Amino acid sequence: MTEELSLPESLAFWSTSVSGGLTTASSLLLAGSVADVLGPGSVDLLGCITSGAFMLGCGFARRGEELVVSRALQGLGIALYLSGCVSFITKTAPRGRGRNISFACLVLSQPLGFSFGLVVGVTLVDTLGWRAGWYLYGSITLLLLATIGFWSFPKPPRMWTMQNLTHDIKTKVDWVGALLASIFMALLSHFPA
């Protein structure tokens, strides 16, 4: 992959670390604040669409820099998706055992998905090439997960006009705090101890 994309040696590991470690971690609090304002279903769906689109973008990348940028933007989609999921659980499940089981299932799905994806990804790389995994997972995320989310998530209780939406985003999100936290998370993720 690094040879095909002419990925410079200085960027060789960025394609794997920029998504989860850097952009997802640094934008998770900001995405959570937006999910609290817009509602979990909308943000979760936006995260699925963003993540799936940039997974496909990784498959279509022709240069190493394009792959790194697509992975970084995919990380933003993952942050939106995760914060939407957490917000969805906290708003729909009452405190107690049911909510705890919901969070446990969400947390368990991540290593299981990672392990399954790793096995399938290695198989695809060995048989069809490294782009096949991006095409497959991006298509599944866009076509299956986003479609299911669109039809199954409850509709928001109020319909926004563009004016109400921008007003709520401007006034109900602590932009200064979220941006400072995002910057510090990025620094912590990028500069290991």
Quick gist of this model?
The protein has about 190 residues and is mainly α.
Query: Helical percent range?
Result: over 70%
Overall spatial form:
globular
Gyration radius (Cα, Å) is 18 Å
Largest sheet: number of strands, sense, barrel closure: none
Structure report:
- Helices cover 81% and strands 0% of the residues.
- By secondary structure, the chain is mostly helical.
- The mean pLDDT is 86.
Question: How would the blueprint of this fold be written?
Answer:
Elements: H1 14-38, H2 40-60, H3 64-92, H4 97-127, H5 130-152, H6 162-172, H7 175-190
Helix pairs in contact: 1-2, 1-3, 1-6, 1-7, 2-3, 2-5, 3-4, 4-5
Characteristics of this structure?
single chain; 81% helix
